[in-house]
Amino acid sequence: MPKHLPTVAIVGRPNVGKSTLFNRLVGKKLALVDDRPGVTRDRREGDARLFDLEFRIVDTAGFEDEDPQSLPGRMRAQTEAAVADADVALFMVDSRAGIVPLDAEIGRWLRAGNTPVILAANKAEGRAGNDGVLEALELGFGDPVELSAEHGEGMVELFEALMPYIDAAVAATDEDEDESEDGPLKLAVVGRPNAGKSTMINRILGEDRLITGPEAGITRDSIAIDLMWNDRPLRLIDTAGMRKRAKVQDKLEKLSVADALRAVDFAEVVVLLLDATLGLEAQDLKIADRVLEEGRALVIALNKWDVAENPSSLFQGVRKALDEGLAQARGVPLIAVSGATGKGLDQLIQAAFETRDAWSKRVSTGQLNRWFERAVEANPPPAPGGKRIKLRYITQAKTRPPGFILFGTRVDQLPESYRRYLVNGIRKELGFGAVPVRLTLRAPKNPFDR
């Protein structure tokens, strides 16, 4: 998340529900709410979240036309300052009371400034606010967002209205920040016993830092070692070998495997080390599956390449088996290495950094929805029972791993095959590669359901 959050200022005459909306967006009752007008006097700020949008919200005093030296006049000056500093102003009116002269005056003042304005008609639940919503059009800010701050209705529509402004502000302030450059790359090395994990790490370090030998299971604790690789910080984590659960009888080995799984949870990228002399086994796929389930980025290394027989056909066979066995992350990087000779280790570390970059990547909502429109046009969603599934838009909710929210109607009936089509498109078209991608489906609430 960017260090500087975009700012949204809520403005309007007293008692239209500004503080109620503020409390809903920050998720706490920070602002006092009462039926009497003028309860809020100072600017109150909080960190707000609306689905994946994160921003700074400012609750302002009710805008009143008073002498600048009076208390209401000084409150108005605070409101003007908040709007001037904001990336977007949310102009709130009361749809039940209709538009009054003070609303029109606030509208004229907002139009004279440089801050973009979104008009919101609050208390629009039921039919009592219909006339006020129509009246709000005369303020000259286009169609108002109809919402109920008290009941939480209209939040999807508010999200749609705010999204372009928040997105633009994030892009402007976050242009020079790179999420992938925030500390050492935390790289855990996992695999079956005796795959050569400690030997490979010693070769990367250039010293015999870890005990190695022909016996399986020498490493018991997860060992973290910090180093610099091509002037970039790296934290390597060696883990105990993971055998099939049925074969793990010894209590100490059980603790070692549990420790290795914890190391996976704390890592950013996980290298699964295979033994080229043994090929790919079912246990390797289980380990890979566990890594992806935890949302970690995965790179696979084929070790002991210097002593492998028929290396070319072996590599192709492992590649094919991985793509079939790891359908949820087809195309995971596969690098041939040798812990004994050092072959391929530079490419392995480089692939790990590149994979973390993809794992940390954020795509702007505009770019994402341009891709989304093309994808839906090329392959429209099915119509189960003759009723269309309408997909409205998509947005990225998080990174590490990348998570997306898809908004639409009847999305609960979207087939798993279509969800896979979209996830594969996100990976391929938007540069996420083979990292795990989460896609959540969400439908706006219908106020008439009840």
From TrEMBL:
NCBIfam families, per database record: GTPase_EngA, small_GTP
Subunit (UniProt): Associates with the 50S ribosomal subunit.
InterPro entries with a match to the protein in the record: G_ENGA (IPR031166), GTP-bd (IPR006073), GTPase_Der (IPR016484), KH_dom-like (IPR032859), KH_dom-like_a/b (IPR015946), P-loop_NTPase (IPR027417), Small_GTP-bd (IPR005225)
Family membership noted in the UniProt record: Belongs to the TRAFAC class TrmE-Era-EngA-EngB-Septin-like GTPase superfamily. EngA (Der) GTPase family.
Keywords (A to Z) from UniProt: GTP-binding, Hydrolase, Nucleotide-binding, Repeat, Ribosome biogenesis
Record: residues binding GTP 2: 191-198, 238-242, 303-306
Sequence positions that bind GTP 1: 12-19, 59-63, 122-125
CDD domains: EngA1, EngA2
Keyword Protein biosynthesis found: no
Gene designation: der
Organism for this UniProt entry: Sphingomonas colocasiae
EngA-type G domain residues: 6-170, 185-360
Biological role: GTPase that plays an essential role in the late steps of ribosome biogenesis.
Domain of life: Bacteria
PANTHER family attached to this UniProt entry: GTPASE DER
One term of GO molecular function: hydrolase activity
Protein name: GTPase Der
